[in-house]
């Protein structure tokens, strides 16, 4: 039979065991929490950069966006010179072949290649690039936004163009339009290229990467505005005419670019602004084809159709 002193001893042993168990549990919890913290802050998850993306200052984001936005056209110009050199070396390429090579180098490589290469340089893998850009099959709602966005662009351009005419400001001509007017047989190629080449290539760079880079540090409105400004400005190189005319046309192009950016921000799906961009350009080239082909029947309307192509955001 155990006396009072024996009961005290058993109680003390039991208490010590419980305390030790509690300490071990607390230590295990701390270890688990430390592991989760390390995983969340330093380890890369599938599809993300090898290091966690930390929002930097707006100035750095804007500088990166401007650099990428300007570098694309520079690569396109250099690539175009390469196509021109090949044309000279072989004694003249067929116009169709020359245009296809120019589209591949000046769009797929200069814009699409730069965008993908930049994201790969930042550490994104293939699935991470698709996730960052938001590349997925559009829904019926998305397709509705493409049509709705195009209507908004048309109405906006009608208003802006009317204001420009009332002010008596001159506009510049688009080099692609001039080439198409001189060679109407290539217009169908341009129409197809708007959907398959120009829309996707330019949107992956200027909406997917330039606007996306800005959104890492800026709210939606300024990011869209800055990306649209960069996109509109780089079209100076695609225009012909005086400086004032080029600047006026760049200012006009700023508005459809805003719609591209807003649609991308809303849907978070790069395919949507790419389709909208392609649709807008394709419609204008289709109007140009009609006005050039039936210029005798249309009369003065043909000149108006040709003038529309200066508003192409390509």
From TrEMBL:
Respond yes or no to whether keyword Transmembrane is given for this record: yes
Q: Which residues form the CAAX prenyl protease 2/Lysostaphin resistance protein A-like domain?
A: 188-283
Q: Could you confirm whether the keyword Cell wall biogenesis/degradation appears in this record?
A: no
Task: Locate the compositionally biased regions of type Low complexity.
Answer: 22-49
Transmembrane segments annotated in the record for this chain: 59-84, 96-121, 142-166, 186-206, 218-237, 243-263, 270-292
Query: Which Pfam families does the entry link to?
Result: Rce1-like
Q: Name one GO molecular function term.
A: endopeptidase activity
The protein's Enzyme Commission number: 3.4.-.-
Provide a GO biological process annotation: CAAX-box protein maturation
Q: Region Disordered: list its residue ranges.
A: 1-49
- What keywords would UniProt list here? Hydrolase, Membrane, Transmembrane, Transmembrane helix
Q: Which InterPro entries match?
A: CAAX_protease, Rce1/LyrA-like_dom
Full protein name: CPBP family intramembrane glutamic endopeptidase
Species = Halorubrum glutamatedens
